[in-house]
Amino acid sequence: MGRSLKTRIPCHPEELNPKIPDPKLVFRKEKEYRDKMAQDYNIRHRVVEGEQLSPGDRVWIPDLKTEGTVVQPHNSPRSFVVQSPKTRVRCNRRMMRRLSSYPETVPRSPLPKTMTFQYLTPVNSENEYRSSPEPVLNGSNPKPTPEVKDVEPRRSVRNRRPPKCYDEEY
Question: pTM score, two decimals?
Fold first, then answer.
């Protein structure tokens, strides 16, 4: 009714006796409510379960910047006991990356001995350029490009034409 009543409402005296609800029914309903709330939260925030780790899996521990081996699950949720080269640590699943899917060592290619660069060389006085590759061996200095006055250095080789609105005089 939206307001507190000042008059008494007649009722039977048996309805005034307190009744104890069935505890199993209350616990079941509360569990269903909590499960539904957790499921809605996980859907809303796009929660994804991480892959399961088992004892013996090799993992990378980013905060220690070292690798280790999972010894056993810990009592805390999503936590594991990990043996690193120096000590045993408890790590949350979020703080570890599995190493078994990655190669043991990543082969790195050596730097090339010959590197090529693109140089812009002027073709004529109308701001036309062409690109020409000249090799540079082992960090030796490249040949300097002749400078043209009133031309800004730029990457593009497209002809530059000033806008027509600046041609008109006021």
Answer: 0.40
Burial class (CB in 10 A: 0-12, 13-18, 19+), 79: middle
Q: Confirm if 79 and 91 have CB atoms less than 8 A apart.
A: yes
Distance CA 163, CA 170 (A): 16
The SS3 call for residue 125 is coil
> Quick one: how far is CA 61 from the chain centroid?
17
Quote the Cα angle for 56-62-63, to 5°: 115
On whether the CB atoms of residues 115 and 135 are closer than 8 A, the answer is yes
pLDDT score at 118: 55
Query: Among candidates 163, 156, 159, 154, which has minimal Cα distance to 125?
Result: 159
The residue type at 143: K
Is 64 exposed, middle or buried, given 0-12, 13-18 or 19+ CB atoms closer than 10 A?
Answer: middle
For residue 5, the Cα-to-chain-centroid distance in whole angstroms is 58
How crowded is residue 47: how many other Cβ atoms within 10 Å of its Cβ? 10
* pLDDT level of residue 120 (50, 70, 90 thresholds): low
